[in-house]
Specification:
By secondary structure, this protein is an alpha/beta fold. The chain has ten helices and eleven strands. It has helices at about 10-20, 50-65, 80-90, 105-120, 155-170, 205-210, 225, 230-255, 275-295, 325-350, and strands at about 25-30, 40, 45, 65-70, 135-140, 175-180, 215-220, 260-265, 300-305, 305, 320. The chain has a four-stranded parallel β-sheet, covered by helices on one side.
Length: about 350
């Protein structure tokens, strides 16, 4: 959208609406690897028109008082992902077993580091500010939803996060870094694996987030996918426990803040209606607000995903079109006001001293 002058007004309109309803943080992709209208067309080779689109997103976010959480690669095939990186190495004659070699193969790791450097050192063509120096960017996400099914011990992802989080900090010491995790537990505290939805993915919420250069923890929530076939009551209980367990561990075990960086309710799920989505959003927002109000480690939640009108081709069932969703907007706006009120109370208390 942002790279096409005929549609980039949708970016401006969406940011304007989001700001109107009190939203102040958006998470989006700083990648598109291979394929149609890619940002990175081959390792280290970029389409500058696409980069200018990302420049526009950063610039418009700043104008509307919205911070950005930028993800640097996808675990999944969408927009290339780790599979594209592995394929690039294969195309150069290197032997790789499977897509999980993304985390261990030195050639592929260098491709990823080169992309990190290209994004972080990018000089915005509109603002003239390097991304690594731009306060509009709230944090970097190493990878969206990392999984490594070929190594359930967690070692491969642990080593990768150690290496890549440290690498980001060699370029940019000003911004926060998070992994991009869904929240699955692993071998460092095996007794906590009972909280997983019946399977493991090669990540370790505790060990991965204890890494020095990781600044805060994250979780995602998709009970309709993770506990399919269960009723609303079972899913609601899973959601409550997933959030609370990770809040507790972030505070008492890891000692870092936590954000719910992705959750949603699909219109393609059985029995879906807007009221069910609103109730789901409210339950998550309530958990976050209660934590923040009592001085806990969680103070934010990002739903998947905001879209503008006219973006039906991008639909995945989870989109929230603000102009078409007045009741959901009401839920979101209320949460924004409540979280903002806590900031006002905090600053008023500080002023009293």
């Amino acid at each position: 959208m942002a790279s096409d002058p005929s549609t980039r007004d949708k970016v401006t309109d969406t940011f304007a609406q989001a700001s109107k309803y009190g939203m102040n943080l958006a998470r989006t992709w700083a990648f598109s690897d291979g394929g149609y209208r890619a940002l990175q067309t081959s390792p280290g080779v970029y389409n500058d028109d696409m980069f200018k689109g990302l420049d526009f997103v950063v610039s418009e976010a700043k104008k509307h008082g919205i911070y950005l959480l930028l993800s640097l690669v996808n675990n999944w095939e969408g927009f290339g992902g780790k599979r594209q990186y592995v394929q690039w190495a294969k195309d150069k004659g290197h032997y790789l077993n499977n897509d999980d070699d993304f985390f261990t193969n030195p050639i592929v790791k260098d491709y990823y580091k080169n992309h990190v450097k290209a994004v972080l050192t990018r000089i915005n063509s509109i603002t003239g500010v390097a991304y690594k120096d731009d306060p509009t960017i709230f944090a970097w996400e190493l990878i969206n939803e990392p999984r490594c099914q070929s190594d359930l011990s967690g070692k491969d992802i642990q080593d990768w996060v150690e290496e890549m989080s440290a690498y980001v900090k060699t370029i940019d010491t000003k911004h926060l870094v998070e992994v991009g995790m869904e929240g699955f537990y692993g071998e460092s505290m095996p007794e906590k694996k009972q909280n997983n939805p019946g399977y493991e993915v090669g990540t370790d919420f505790i060990a991965n987030n204890l890494i020095l250069h990781v600044d805060f923890t994250t979780i995602h929530l998709y009970p309709d996918q993770w506990v399919p076939g269960s009723n609303d009551e079972v899913q609601a209980e899973f959601v409550h426990k997933w959030i609370q367990t990770h809040i507790d561990d972030s505070k008492s075990v890891i000692g870092k803040p936590i954000m719910v960086t992705e959750f949603g309710k699909s219109s393609r799920s059985p029995g879906y209606n807007v009221e069910a989505r609103d109730n789901y959003f409210s339950s998550i927002f309530d958990s976050v607000y209660r934590c923040a109000r009592t001085g806990g480690p969680c103070g934010g939640a990002l739903f998947w995903q905001v879209m503008a009108q006219g973006m039906a081709d991008w639909s995945d069932g989870y989109e929230v079109v603000l102009e078409q969703s007045p009741s959901t907007v009401g839920v979101i706006s209320q949460q924004s006001r409540e979280i903002a009120s806590l900031n006002q109370i905090k600053f008023a208390t500080l002023a009293d001293y």
